[in-house]
Amino acid sequence: MQQENKYLVKATNISKIYNHEPVLSDINLEVKKGDRIGIVGPNGSGKTTLCEILAQLRRPSSGQALKEYGVRIGMQLQESKYPKGTTAYDILNLYLKAYKLYLEPEVILSYLTTLNVKELMNKDISKLSGGQQQRINILLALIINPDLVILDELATGLDLESKERIYDLLSQFLGDQEKGLIIISHNMDEIQNFCDTLIFMVNGVIQKISNVQEIVREFGTVEKFVKEKFKEYQIQPTNISNSNLNQEVSNDKWAKQWKKYVDKNKK
Fold first, then answer.
1. What is the pLDDT of residues 63-89, one digit of tens each?
2. Which segments constitute the ABC transporter domain (predicted)?
């Protein structure tokens, strides 16, 4: 009997070219169930492009990106452009329909409350602040209960309270040992606290894959290790930093609104 394949996504000899310039070069990476991976590197090193390819949002110029059958991927994009006049509620509806998900209204309301976005859901999403849109993007990535979540600079534009709420929610999500995580971040505390593997990228190439616990034992912190790598590759680490790091459910108008929606669309 063949052993069950445990990978979630796999990149084989991935390369990507934009405007005749290489962005990724011969990337090989396998993300398995339970992997917690942090990706760091200077701006323009191909981190976001690699993750978009892994999430099946972008095609490689050559090579192959495979997703195991039935694997659900949630990705929070660093920058999202939404059509004017579309509410966050509209976008969430589209997500749930696209994934053919039925969620109890109380479950949805708990996400909205935890991320403090309940009051934003009926507003034009294109007019929300960057931090508000970021919270909506994180909501969309996590509410589908993905097997693999990919977070691209998740704390950008967020105040301390919002960061704490999101870190708590992410910790709950990772309580399932089979869930996979990829974080792109310039915040080394996020890598050190949530990841067991660190990938260092420069110029579209994976230069080093390291165990986070071993890094901490040798260097004291992930930040010190990354700064050493930046020196090695003669990169100025100006944007690498550390940072200090009872859901209430009620039958209000949101629960009623969602109940009406899911009853209408429930099979």
1. 999 999 999 999 998 777 788 899 999
2. 9-228
Residue 151 lies in a domain: yes
The pLDDT value recorded for residue 4 is 56
- Total domains present in the chain: 3
Whether the per-residue pLDDT at 223 is higher than 70: the answer is: yes
Q: How far apart are CA 191 and CA 231, in angstroms?
A: 19
Same domain, 111 and 53: no
**DSSP secondary structure, the chain, as one string:** -PPPP-EEEEEEEEEEEETTEEEEEEEEEEEETT-EEEEE-STTSSHHHHHHHHTTSS--SEEEEEE-TT--EEEE-SS----TT-BHHHHHHHHHHHTT----HHHHHHHHHHTT-GGGTTSBGGGS-HHHHHHHHHHHHHHT--SEEEEESTTTT--HHHHHHHHHHHHHHTTSTT-EEEEE-SBHHHHHHH-SEEEEEETTEEEEEEEHHHHHHHHSSHHHHHHHHHHHTT---TT-B----------SHHHHHHHHHHHHH--
Which residues constitute the domain of residue 20?
1-72+146-236
Q: Specify if 219 maps to a domain.
A: yes
Q: What is the pTM of this model?
A: 0.86
Same domain? 66 vs 135? no
